[in-house]
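Input chain follows. Return structure tokens only.
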Amino acid sequence: MAIRKYAGYAWNLVSLVGMILAVTAAGLIIGFLSYEGITGVEKPYLGLMTYFLFPGMLIVGLLLVPVGAFLVRQKRRAHAGEDIPAFPRLDFNDPAKRHLFIFFVVATIGFVLIVSIASLKGFEFTESTTFCGELCHVVMEPEHTAWANSPHAKVKCVECHVGPGAAWYVKAKLSGMRQLYAVLFHTYPETIETPIDNLRPARDTCEHCHWPEKFYAGRQKIFYHYAPNEANSPREINLLIKIGGTPKSSNAMGIHWHIKSKVSYIATDKKRINIPYIRVEGTDGKVTEFVDTEKPLTKAEIEKGKKREMDCTDCHNRPTHIYRAPGVEMDENFVSGHIDSSLPYMKKIAVEILTRPYKTAEDANATIAKELPAYYAKNYPALASSKAKQIAQAVVEVQGIYGRNFFPAMKVSWNTYPNFIGHFYTPGCFRCHDGKHKSAEGKVISKDCDMCHTVLSQKQENIPEGTKPKGFVHPVDIGDELFKTNCSDCHAAGGQDVPGGETHAKK
């Protein structure tokens, strides 16, 4: 019984179970770390086991070994026939004890190294987008998918949601514990609410990459649209967007002027859409207050109201988790050539199918795969045969549009969360720039389009070729409503552009 002699008090069921747990956990950690290092594959549940479950097993196993030995020793001390001292004797002249001590030291160093590596990798794992977006798959699927298709797809979640510094790291982990509890016990809301309370100020996060002092005067941008008519008629708006914001220059009054001046406001709803009061403090210290003339707040309500100082996220409120309207997605697929724009009524039919309510994504994909080809087979049989490949490709792309912007399990669709950049599908800029906010001196926050952008050129069906319009021309003549009604009042519902001439597809 040489093994038992060397094991001493550790030769008991509790300690042996601990040894087996520790050795098994150490082997699994080494194996999975090697697998991840060799393959480069980072899987959320594999990471959860490698960096949390197995190290926990190892630590529990190591604790069970001395616990079992202590219990056996105490049991033997209780017997009157054995003279066992209160504390163990360590005699290096005894080969058995010397060898056991050496084994204990070497094993301890090995296990400490394994746990340390796993802990460091575990910390790194908790900072990864895999941990943030994929571990709580159902809950975070909409936001993770939107992030992966956004301009910030190379930026880790923690860089914006946590930022540098220990204080916010601790706050984030404490918040994460509450979120973990909500996921485990299914107490989270079916649709995650925004904006996020107690989000770190944008100046601590956004401005690490975006440098306000270097904002330039303007940016040219071309917007491509296609009419929802038989020809999918192409439209193009070439704008000079007056970004501005450069301090102490003639360009200081561009869009980014808002973050160079101290602007605060009161919103009467959680989503910050209804803004009846705005306070502007100029660089000279002069304060100007603007109130909504249609729904003004009383002085008492202004005094008690929660005032928020405007920052980047008041306009760029969806800088990463961006869901896009089906109409916009179709426009981009036409421009990129992923969908053949010569397929009659393709935009109109696709958007109509996409915006229907579906119980599951599988139902939506099945409907798209069935109805798009069926439409062309019924209404354009010759084209359905000659362009079968293009129609099949369109089906795949339209299913991709649904997968990026609709998530029935979380009751999220492209228009669930308002995006305040622009004003096409949500009030956006017009929350304040509606021509209804007036100061005591009679100054009005203007709704003039040219304050933020200038139309350089525009192409569409109702503009003669070669003509340069003086301002924006709506595809359909709506008279003064162009200036009285917000774009979002018509466009918010279905993501479809206003038809230019033809109002119905063939049935």
